[in-house]
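Q: Entry one of two.
A:
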Amino acid sequence: MTIDLYTWSTPNGRKASIMLEEVGLSYRVTAVDISKGEQHDPEYRALSPNGKIPVIVDHEAEGADGRPRRVFESGNILVYLAEKTGMLLPASGEGRTETLGWLFFQMAHLGPMVGQWHWFKNAAPAKSDMAISRYREESLRLLEVMNGRLGEVPYLGGADYSIADVASYAWAKAASDELANEDAEAVAGLAPLLDWLARVGERPAVQRGMAIPDDEQKKAAAERASIEGPAGGGQAKP
């Protein structure tokens, strides 16, 4: 296999699997069960210093230590694979700067805000209506920003599908689905965004990438022993 992918079924993890499917590289999946704290295992932290998924290891490239090159952080993985294959990222010009701008929009704003909304709503040990409302409203605002862009051009980077769309799809889908479940009117006016979600979601590579890790890969993770002690999670959040 050209690439080892370490991932889990989260929007960040799905960026990497969608991208690998889009560019057609051969890859092998290791499911990193974040509910068991596997992302904090010292061996995994050697690949991902911040203890997050996803990570890839490229066996066709050499790292500074002479081993196959590790690439961590999901946005970095997208840029790396785009440059490795010459796909989904313009080499220069305005198309490149627009694509990278929307990639960083996802990394700095959409992902963190939707993630915080989900955590305070569904996982926090103590409920905070203020936090839930704050992150919900900011998530909706960011979807409205995307909607405005997609009312002007077919894809976030412009005329062509790119890593900006790969990065944003799973996060925007999760946020719009949750908003629609709460209040259908909250997303009813986001027609360009909903059209983009439908078009991107119809891509076969996106459908395959969204299904990674699959049930067999998750079963392998479930059968591994839980990590003991601080590496099993402690006060760190997945």
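Q: Entry two of two.
A:
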Amino acid sequence: MSSMYDGYKKKLKEAGYKLTPQRIAILSAIEENKGLHLNTEEIYDIVKQSNPEMGLATVYRTLQLLEELEVVSSLNLEDGCVRYELYSDDGQHNHHHLICSNCGAVIEVEGDLLEELENKIEKEYDFKILDHKLKFYGICSECKNLV
């Protein structure tokens, strides 16, 4: 098993769970399609190719558990689907997202662009920020060039 799964295995074990073949298959589907922000049904379609016995309910339950354990993060793009990605393994904030209102493309913005703002908020409000999610809506370069 890849060292990529060592952190996941540890997190699951600490919470009293095992890294089962089903969980590995789901994590692999997300990892192998990094940046695509797959929804539950898309993950299921990928997983069932190599695990035809796995049901959609198993995928839903597993994603819920993995989200509770902060192994995966959900992303709601207000398109009726919840999408998933792996939590950042460097202990930093997750990246930000640019969402095209025309074609629905999702572009990841790496780096924490809000560090200065977070520090100001923490000082002014005596509030410890643990994480944040930020989405910008607009028109991507491809759609912008079509206009």
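A: Comment on entry two: The domain at 96-146 is CATH 3.30.1490.190 (Dna Ligase; domain 1). The chain has six helices and six strands.
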